[in-house]
Amino acid sequence: MLHVIKYSDKNSIAHVYTDTHGRMAFLLPQGATRAARMRNAMFMPLSVIEFEACITAGREIATFRDCKSLLPLSSLYAEPAKSAVAMFMSELLARTVQESEGNDPLFRFIVGSVRLLNSMERGVANFHICFLYHLGAFIGIEPDTATYREGYWFDMDNGIFTQSHPMHSHVLAPKEAAVIKLLSRMTFANMHLFKFNRVQRNEVLDIALSYYKLHNSTIGAMKSPEILRQVFG
How much helix, strand and coil, in percent to the nearest 5, is found in the chain? Predict the structure, then answer.
């Protein structure tokens, strides 16, 4: 589940990333009945659900049938730190993942990340940074770290490291460029070993987001990064 937006007094639109059809939009009826409340509870950000879809040719919005939750996420919504990270992941995915075709590796990465975040007992502070960096490999903007050398600049337009300043302004100086190389070594298994203070973590997040925004015009001004700064400040 990416996000839900209000469509009318009776319906909302749920934007979902699916394993077989990529991103899809579904009509989500609203209501005050117990059944409606239970159904809506399944459509929280990052919820992992199984359903049958009723797709009508020529219509952009489909309908659900026989929905059920596949992964209880009680920890994700109960803990403020995890909730902040989940909000960021949901907003990032909603803005960057637009393809209406199945992408099994991306789908597995997202579900695996959600499952891991929900089960973690500590060390959540770097999760959003690790997720942000590695998502780039699935959407075609992963930096080419094989071109890195100490003291090189990072050409943000082309995603490569260069010995001299590129002939444009979308560039990171060598000190900031080294951060990109550092992030390439971060995994969900070792991210707890990366010790950032408040200022450093915010700088890393800003650098990574600026690179994303350069390559994806749909990101725009995100709200969730400010929440992350407050939670992990």
Answer: 45, 20, 40
